[in-house]
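[job 4417] fold queue: 2 targets
>>> target A
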Amino acid sequence: MKLGISGVIGLAALLMAGCNNSTLAAFEKAAAELPAAEAAAKQLGLPLTGADLMPKTPVRPEDNAAPLLREAGKTFSEAARPHKGWEQTFALAIAEPTPANMEAAQRVIASLDPALSLAEKAAAKPSIDFGHDWTREDPWKIEFPAFSEIKSLSKGFVFRAQLRAISGDKAGAIRDMRAASRLAEFAGTDPTLIAALVQIATDAMVSRTMEIIVSRHPGDVALLNALDEIADRKTNQPMEILRSLRGEIIMSLAAAEAPATDLVGSYFGEVDPEDPNAVSEANKLKAELAPSGVPDDLRARAFRARALQPWIEVYADQATVKDNATLVKRLAEIDYQLKSDDDPTTALRVMTYPMTLQAGQAFLKRDAQWQAVRGLMAVLRFKGAQGRYPASLAEAGFTDVDPFTGKAFHLKVEGETVRVYSVGPDGVDNGGEERVNTAPDAPRQMDIVSMFPRRVNPAPK
């Protein structure tokens, strides 16, 4: 049977109507689930408005580290500006502590000392309130300048600690490690994933620096104990992934009510009108976020329901909530489900659901790294007391289990080189080898290692 032009147009209209009706029905179904989703979220204590993230008890001004931290960050930035390449200056002095290199590094430190002194005072404060306004309509546009300041100041602390260790000022090095560790914890108090990742990155700097300091003074029991106290605090106060996701929940709920144009702009940034692929992708996302024939109010309620439902699924599982390793696996499963779901009401949920397997594993890597540091400290203390290395970590009194396997950490001793390590996310024992570069052909997964002696590679000249 042949159709005339009018017949073809009529058939196309019917098909489009069917498509629109199907999409509309999906949004109506999702919107109808919103009351139950909000009730479940409320029962689980999930934040439903930005006000739920605001401090219930305001931090007293005299207890708040934020003002001092801001002042320290500004002072640090101004002091570092005249010293271009200051990080390389420190790295060279630490790798090759010749009189000339040390003198150059000390000149930079003298400039940075006032800022680090302010930061040390900030680190001594009992709490912090960054002052973020979570009640705004577009919380995804909140800026986090304090996180950049924390990273810069912590970098200053770890460099100064290494210089102090070289010159024999072990007490000063310990103070710097404590201050940097505390700044990392301050970052992690913010209920966002980006804040948690800043803490994880800063903790990584601190733990690696502790290995370098110990490598210069392995027989100093007081130093070992002081640094082990820092690591012990970290392992006994694990980061809470679910707390870090509370801000993400609010961002996804706010995004549910935002105009599609605003969301596309936030997602893609400024789209080059001369780039047809970029324009096409932006238009495609806009069409998915504002489908034709779906009223804005209905769209917002449907997206809000779909934004809440995966979080409800995670927070309601008590076994998952109590164990980071199980939680990471569950979050990865949900992430995969969202990306595989072709329901039009999941368009926003796919964009706002932030936790990927890689991000979740960052929490576990951080836990494993601090545990490995503690294991290394135990081994070195055993060596100091017994005059030999232990045959196992258990003999040294270290019995922590690898968060990636649930089994014991590994100990590898070759002469005077010691490695305490986790096998990492891939579960493969690489003999204590760690990823040391980021070349495209470098292994993506290696072991998570705490090493003695931790050698510092010479800085490029």
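>>> target B
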Amino acid sequence: MFDKQVYVNRRLNLRDKIRSGIILITGNNESPMNYPSNTYRFRQDSNFLYFFGLDLPGFVGIIDIEDGKDSIYGNDFTLDDMIWMGPQPKVKELAEKVGIQCTHPMRELGSTLQRAIRNGRRIHFLPQYRADNILMIDRLMGISPGLVSQYASVELIKAVVTIRSVKEDVEIAELDKASDVGYLMHTTAMKLTKPGITEQELVGAAEGVAIGKGYMTSFPIILSQNGETLHNHDHSQILTPGRMLLMDAGAEIGSHYASDNTRAFPVSGSFTPIQKDIYTIVLNALNRGIELCKPGVTYQSIHLEAAKVIAQGLTDIGIMKGNVDDAVANGAHAMFFPHGLGHMMGLDVHDMEDLGEDYVGYDDEISRIDQFGTASLRLGRRLQKGFVLTVEPGIYFVPALIQKWEDEKINSSFINFDKAAELIGFGGIRLEDDVLVTEKGNRLLGSKRIPVTIEEVEKIVGKG
């Protein structure tokens, strides 16, 4: 939790962007794994954390634009609760820590909302992703669960995206901490990598770094020798000499700010010539993407420049052919690079995507390009100082995609299918760093960059 003035200022900033009505920010509740008292690890809603700061279940925040009051609705713990949990603060005490003087028991939330409805006031709420909050809105406001998403306030969504996109100094400090934990997660796995162990052993070791500090992973770890499957959560294989291993992982620290990095490295500790060639192309695309990040540049244009680096590199080694600019314009690179270059990051590893990817990553100026691969770019809009984002190019050899394009002669003037088919079984390489856009350029988050050059990787892998 930050100093209470941080939350006061955030709510004032939000007030300035909403014309009238009541803003309803729902917190999360406990979520049971298999019976009510056996719950998953609690994760508070990020918007509630951002504006109201309380990292506990069972709260709802109200910002009343007209009367100027901020309120928290929630119930004090009972004696029975405290027998199991120990002494607990009152709701009023918790509210004061985030600069709120007005508190109410949860049973009064319904009358507050109904009174606003009777008076013809707009109730602004954000898209909901938890079933219990959707049902609460149905119960208290009479909006059918199937229609809740349609009633979410676009005005509020745009206001929240505007505010949360630009990170404050206190947030950047937390993001640096998260990146330092991510560094330890990745280097731990690199050091322990050797033929004969299972992928799951590395996942456990990396996750244990975060858990050992009282943290959690920012998403389920992706680690696989089948790196051509972009989000591969199967960790059952035994590490085999000659194969590449891809690891995409990050930490979520106590404040819930996240990191997100990807590295790919040879199981044997040394790159083969073709592994070195493909890796070098991806590394060049990563470094070029980072170099281009600065205020005023659209991330869509940076994505396309990274795609050109990939297309040029694959052309140089005979897998692609023809004019590189034409190849990228026609989307030929996407057979090998079928995803976007990156996304916003902060309290969520894909920051604010619960509010709608197009609201976060695009705007009235920059719209999504409707082309395979590039259509998956989550962030396209013009960068600003204070944005935090990932840069994550990759090259993958997906058997089904190669076969489909060859059979249908898709981009056949730009792809050497015989050469591409020779690399089926290679897997995939993705490299990802977390970047803060600064006044004149950018910097990487964290105190140290995870080993990324061929020399650095060969020096660390298998040396644990």
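[job 4417] complete. Note on B: The chain has a mean pLDDT of 97.
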